[in-house]
Amino acid sequence: MTGAREQAEQLFGEFGRGRPDGVWSAPGRANLIGEHTDYNEGFVLPFAIEHRTYAAVGIRADRTLRVISTLDRQPFALSLDALAATFDGPAGHAVAEGTVPEWAAYPLGVAWAAYPLGVAWAALAATGRPAAEVAGLDIALASDVPVGAGLSSSAAIEGATASALNDLWELGLDGLSIAKIGRTAENEAVGAPTGIMDQVSSTLGRLDAATFLDCRTLETASVDLGFTATGLALLVIDTRVKHAHSTGGYRERRASCEKGAAEMGVPSLRDLSVADLPRAEEALDDVTFRRVRHIVTENQRVLDTVEALRAAGPLAIGELLVASHASMRDDFEISVAELDTAVDAALGAGALGARMTGGGFGGAAIALVEADSLDVVSRAVEEAFAERGFTAPHTFTVTPSEGARRDV
Ligand code: ADP
Ligand code: MG
């Protein structure tokens, strides 16, 4: 089977101009723990996975941007001079109005967010700084990150594109700044109101480590996972139930969190701790309280997980994963029957811990499993799905991997 990197290079051939100038890539991510805490200015602990999106990119002599993807083999072109007119304005309007296909709004939105930085550098060149050409580009994209499975193919496409622009437009950005460009593209150009966790994880990932991110200060710390040394593996169970991230449930949960914070008189739920929960229960209606309780306890679970990993290693975190799932199922109410089935079956077959991951309403669950019982756990999950008449899940392992990089 051809890998995604080769696919991107081959697809680049469809531009009819020979080889790309380089290939960049960025990974998807799995979130070990910390769900829906990002937009509440709380804590998350994601890790980059080995599944990546590759961008094969060639510099053009003119000011045209062309994008093509194995997801939609129709190339889409836009001038650098049309970026602002296309994407400035209300979030997501170019996609909503059909001016730009949704998939193309990810790489072109990245270009829109990065372009002013490139122009600023080019202007500085006149004052003696090294010249930074802001050239048009041909960008061919291919990915082995499952789309819409809660593994953030969106951060992967943003990270791969932004890393390419960072080098080719000589922007000199660090990983966090590249992540911010990705988030701006996703929030403003695509119109999906997500936090910055996925992008940070995709740009800053390290082998066998997770990225602990404080979503308020954007401080990060790499936390060793030690899965390999401990003989553990992380199983992903893609339920194949598609989530609809930018609609319905996600917006509602965000609104409940904002309401809870406002009624508790704090800037965000980050400012509440477990000790504040009895007071919150008295002050809030039942639903809002349970939403708040999920966020507050989940923040504490992330801190506890980091501490457990540092003090005792990954064998010590199973219970925290299980508690996180229960909180999402019962308090935040973002699980679905397929996710609950996956978690219960994995635990029943000996997984150390398991929980749904990602925004919810479908997507994937993760299970922390001893490497030599991977088959047993996978089979138990498949059987449980078959018994309930669910579409067969797709199970595979993910290895904590390196973040965005230049490959060629
Ligand atoms: P997730 O990030 O969980 O996979 P999202 O809905 O956030 O799901 O992002 C998926 C969307 O990102 C796709 O529907 C598509 O528009 C875009 N996308 C992701 N990967 C690619 C790709 N390789 N080529 C083109 N578009 C992609
Ligand atoms: Mg996404």
TrEMBL record:
<feature type="domain" description="GHMP kinase N-terminal">
    <location>
        <begin position="117"/>
        <end position="205"/>
    </location>
</feature>
<keyword id="KW-0119">Carbohydrate metabolism</keyword>
<dbReference type="GO" id="GO:0006012">
    <property type="term" value="P:galactose metabolic process"/>
</dbReference>
<keyword id="KW-0418">Kinase</keyword>
<dbReference type="InterPro" id="IPR006206">
    <property type="entry name" value="Mevalonate/galactokinase"/>
</dbReference>
<feature type="domain" description="GHMP kinase C-terminal">
    <location>
        <begin position="307"/>
        <end position="386"/>
    </location>
</feature>
<feature type="domain" description="Galactokinase N-terminal">
    <location>
        <begin position="14"/>
        <end position="58"/>
    </location>
</feature>
<comment type="similarity">
    <text>Belongs to the GHMP kinase family. GalK subfamily.</text>
</comment>
<dbReference type="Pfam" id="PF10509">
    <property type="entry name" value="GalKase_gal_bdg"/>
</dbReference>
<dbReference type="Pfam" id="PF08544">
    <property type="entry name" value="GHMP_kinases_C"/>
</dbReference>
<dbReference type="InterPro" id="IPR036554">
    <property type="entry name" value="GHMP_kinase_C_sf"/>
</dbReference>
<keyword id="KW-0299">Galactose metabolism</keyword>
<keyword id="KW-0547">Nucleotide-binding</keyword>
<keyword id="KW-0067">ATP-binding</keyword>
<keyword id="KW-0460">Magnesium</keyword>
<dbReference type="Pfam" id="PF00288">
    <property type="entry name" value="GHMP_kinases_N"/>
</dbReference>
<dbReference type="GO" id="GO:0005524">
    <property type="term" value="F:ATP binding"/>
</dbReference>
<dbReference type="InterPro" id="IPR000705">
    <property type="entry name" value="Galactokinase"/>
</dbReference>
<dbReference type="InterPro" id="IPR014721">
    <property type="entry name" value="Ribsml_uS5_D2-typ_fold_subgr"/>
</dbReference>
<keyword id="KW-0479">Metal-binding</keyword>
<dbReference type="GO" id="GO:0004335">
    <property type="term" value="F:galactokinase activity"/>
</dbReference>
<dbReference type="GO" id="GO:0005829">
    <property type="term" value="C:cytosol"/>
</dbReference>
<dbReference type="InterPro" id="IPR013750">
    <property type="entry name" value="GHMP_kinase_C_dom"/>
</dbReference>
<dbReference type="InterPro" id="IPR006204">
    <property type="entry name" value="GHMP_kinase_N_dom"/>
</dbReference>
<dbReference type="InterPro" id="IPR006203">
    <property type="entry name" value="GHMP_knse_ATP-bd_CS"/>
</dbReference>
<protein>
    <recommendedName>
        <fullName>Galactokinase</fullName>
        <ecNumber>2.7.1.6</ecNumber>
    </recommendedName>
</protein>
<dbReference type="InterPro" id="IPR019741">
    <property type="entry name" value="Galactokinase_CS"/>
</dbReference>
<dbReference type="InterPro" id="IPR020568">
    <property type="entry name" value="Ribosomal_Su5_D2-typ_SF"/>
</dbReference>
<dbReference type="InterPro" id="IPR019539">
    <property type="entry name" value="GalKase_N"/>
</dbReference>
<dbReference type="GO" id="GO:0046872">
    <property type="term" value="F:metal ion binding"/>
</dbReference>
<keyword id="KW-0808">Transferase</keyword>
